[in-house]
Design a protein that fits this description.
about 140 residues, alpha/beta, about 15% strand
């Protein structure tokens, strides 16, 4: 039996998917259809919670028909939680982004999906490709 793909999705992609749909929303829907296993960590969940609670996003959260807490709870049901150890040495230009890398290591992820240039510039981490949403869609639903 083939192993389900294991992916870590950066907070910026999740927020875009939840609040604005578009390409990130399409990607999350495709990931569900193609049985992609999503992973998260406490640090990433905390970042998602803090982002969804930002005042400037209040109207967008309200437009979903759910509260920020309900959106977070839904993602917690969809994603598998891993215990991610802090990296021994910084890797990303933005130290906060190392939490995504640590989560991917702990999850034994096959792919990291991000819209963050500080992660994308790395191209891969410990053999785990770091790709944009558009690139991830091509992996999930190749054309032809």
């Amino acid at each position: 039996m083939k192993r389900r793909p294991r992916w870590v999705v950066d907070t910026n992609v999740l927020v875009s998917a939840i609040l604005w749909h578009g390409t990130p929303g399409r990607f999350i829907a495709l990931a569900g259809e193609k049985d992609v296993q999503l992973f998260t960590s406490r640090v990433l969940l905390d970042e998602l919670a803090a982002t969804l609670a930002k005042k400037k996003l209040t109207k967008y959260v309200a437009a979903t028909g759910m509260t920020a807490d309900q959106l977070l709870a839904h993602y917690r049901r969809v994603a598998t939680m891993v215990t991610a150890r802090q990296l021994d040495t910084p890797v990303s230009r933005d130290a906060d982004d190392d939490a995504v890398l640590a989560c991917a290591l702990a999850a034994r992820a096959d792919l990291i999906v991000s819209g963050d240039d500080d992660l994308l510039v790395l191209k891969n981490f410990n053999g785990i490709p770091i790709v944009t949403v558009a690139q991830a869609i091509k992996v999930v639903a190749p054309v032809g």
